[in-house]
Amino acid sequence: MPEVTSTEPAIDGWFAVDDAGNPHLIGSKCPACGTYVFPPRENNCPNPACASDTLAAVPLSTRGKLWSYTENRYPPPAPYPAADPFEPFAIAAVELSDEGIIVLGKVVEGTLAADLKVGMEMELTTMPLFTDDGGVQRTVHAWRISS
């Protein structure tokens, strides 16, 4: 594994971190009907009853309720990076508290499906996904059980 020289998001524009290190997701909101969407995009309101073709970037809630979950027990196929040795990890679908949309994400290391229960409070964090050959540690948004 290469030495970490810097840290960057695995996908630009999906989350941001404030000066205190607190992350928030970046979504989009339709100014015409108020519909939220994640991941963010600039056009095409997802509400079939709305004809708006403009969406505005907005910060999303950092907390929500666990709507569903699963556990990934197999490494991804090439060319996707996987830890060696591969460790199973949980994936959570969290219903954001203010917007009501459901956002998928990995659950922090050390938390597996057996630790989760539908309806429990979750909060947003970030975690490393992998370190590329140039030493850039790629991070993703993730969920953890609220304390």
UniProtKB/TrEMBL annotation:
Organism annotation: Mycobacterium sherrisii
ChsH2 rubredoxin-like zinc ribbon domain mapped to chain residues = 22-55
Give the top-rank taxon of the lineage listed in the UniProt record for this protein.
Answer: Bacteria
**Pfam families reported for this sequence:** OB_ChsH2_C, zf-ChsH2
Q: Which Gene3D superfamilies match?
A: 6.10.30.10
- Occurrences of domain ChsH2 C-terminal OB-fold (ranges): 58-125
Q: What is the lineage of its organism?
A: Bacteria, Bacillati, Actinomycetota, Actinomycetes, Mycobacteriales
Classification via InterPro entries:
ChsH2_C, ChsH2_Znr, NA-bd_OB-fold, Thioester_dehydratase-like
Output this protein's name: Benzoylsuccinyl-CoA thiolase
